[in-house]
Each structure stands twice: as structure tokens, then as C-alpha cells.
């Protein structure tokens, strides 16, 4: 979790979903979050917001389950390339028998690859 | 063909199997009545130490989120805190896990149950994502390959041969099963589900999970088909995750688009799968 803190520092980053119980002050939101009551938005935390202790407590007390945050990526270019190659090979093995000329299968393949590559 | 299976033979085998947990039917019978089976579930949970521990754990997690300072040790307080929906889910997972473990021969294809469990999680999360009823989805997902479990138990040599053929040749497991038994595991599973008194939508979803386009009028059919594909695509359970088909018509029927909006669904499925892992361990090895 510590590697998620201070995500606002410049440098390479990646996105990750975290359960609200694992959030900590200093983490940065990757997408905005709305807090609504009876379908009316009462409060919004914007994309890029660095979480304060109060924000974290508000999220933990809310119905939110997962939050997408920005995580600093300290990996080297070589490590990133190796991880990407591993992910692609793993996903291609799962879809080895699929006809990726079919739009639904091709779209799912690309989505899973993108999700695993984050 | 090794041995052409008939419905009567499969259904008659119930007498040789562990009794299907009655509580599953009771849950289905009272789904529209939010309070009616709470007492039944409370008594059932109270007799099961594993379920008691699980319910207390979930209640304490919920309590910590609502900033309660005191730990919860009382089962009835815990049940009141987690609510009937989550209690139903925990009972279904626990009872069907125990039931399937009782069916599977020890040490044979342990990944079979892990895949069923992962598909149950996918189906439940997909239902919640789409605003569809979660209980039928969970049960259909957990039991969708129950026909393979039956084949493992009653036709092990021919089934394992079909399994190996599907892995090593360019054929599907359903085709290899039909070649040997005259029917595939989806049909056998639907026969069993019907014989256990499960709702028709669950039986139909199990029957058509590999060929859903002919039964799209039942919403659980496309949902179970996609959930089965997702459990493999995300490599959640079992030791042979492969995706070979995905019905475009099912995706359209459910309104699913595989753009970046699917990432939250994937993340929720993975989180739910991790949270359920303690239920879904393999049966003991031989």
C-alpha cells in the first residue's frame, strides 16, 4: 500500500483498483467519485484528488467498494517491457483457440489484455 | 460411443449421491419475501461453526466500516448487521461447496470445482452489475458444470478420455462428450438441476450455457454464458482456462460493451473471487 502513497509526485504511474479498506491519505484518485443521496449528488471528489484523512473516512463509510487510484510506477523500461510481454503471452494462451475475427471475442481479448496490462 | 446416457439413468443416480441441500430450494421459494426464511437461515448457520465464523467475520468488517468500536461476538447481532441478502449468499456458497465436494471423487480433476466456483462468482457479480437477480445467477454459476462432476463420478474413464481429447485435439469438451455418451455435460447438468427442483430458469441456463443463442429469451442464459467465458478469460479458477467462443448475441442481449467501463466489473469479480477463496478450495486429494 505504501507504494500508492504520494502518487501526486511527477513520474510514471499506473492505475489500480483498491478496496476502500486499503485506501490511505496521500493516494490520488484516478477518476472522480460522486457521493449521492436519493440520486442527488451531494459531494464530488474530482479526478486527481489527493485523498485526505477525511476523504478516506468518508469513502470507508460510504457504499463504495472499489476505488481507482494512481500508483507510482517505479519499474524500469526493461521491467515494464518484460511484464507486458508476459501478460500478452498469458492472455494469448487463454484465447489461443478463439477466432479473433469475431468482434465480440476480439473486443473481450483486447479489454482483458488492457486490464491486465495496467 | 461408450455408453449412451438416458435421462432416467442420470436422474435415478440421485439415490447414490449425497442429498441435495434443501435450504437452496427454500431460499428460492422465499426470494420475494425478504423476511420469511431468516429464522430458517439463522438456525442453519448456528449449527455450522464454519458459517458462524464467516458471518461474524463479515459483520465485524461491516462494523469497522461504520466506525463501531466494539467487536461482534453474537451471531444474531452479526446476522442483523450483514443482512439477509449476504446471509443467503454465504449459505448458498457453503452448502453447495460441501455438496459438490461430496460428489467429486477425491483427487480427480480438482480444477473442475474451482472453475465452477469462479463462474458462480462471475455470474453473481455480472448480475449485480446488470441489476439482475443475484441468487439464481450464483446458483447457476456454481452448478453449471455439475454434469461434468456427475460424469467424473459415474463414467470416470470415458470422461477423462473426453477431457484429454478436448485438450489435445481441436474439438470442444461438449463434442467429445456427445461422441461418447450421446449427450454433453450441459444436458446432464440440466437433468440433475431439474430433478433437484431448481427453478426452470436455472435448469435452462445450465442446459444452454455453451449454445445460448437458441434460448436468449431467458435472461439467465446469456448471463451464465458470459460468466463462464469471463471466469476463463480472467483465469480465475481451474487449471485449463481457455476461451474459444463468446456469443455476440448474448453480449448484445445483456447490453455489454467490452470498453474500459468493463474494468470495474473485472475488478469487482476479482475482489469477490479472492473474498470467496476459502469456500472454493479443492476437495481433499486421494
UniProtKB/TrEMBL annotation, chain A:
Protein name: Uncharacterized protein
Taxonomic source organism: Rhodocyclus tenuis
Organism taxonomic ancestry: Bacteria, Pseudomonadati, Pseudomonadota, Betaproteobacteria, Rhodocyclales
Top-level taxon in the UniProt lineage: Bacteria
From TrEMBL, chain B:
Superkingdom of the organism of origin: Bacteria
Record's keyword terms, sorted: Transferase
Gene Ontology molecular-function annotations: transferase activity
Domain HDOD, chain residue ranges per copy: 17-212
Phylogenetic placement of the source organism: Bacteria, Pseudomonadati, Pseudomonadota, Betaproteobacteria, Rhodocyclales
TM regions (residue ranges): none
Keyword Transferase: yes
One Pfam match: HDOD
Protein name: Putative nucleotidyltransferase with HDIG domain
Keyword Magnesium belongs to the record: no
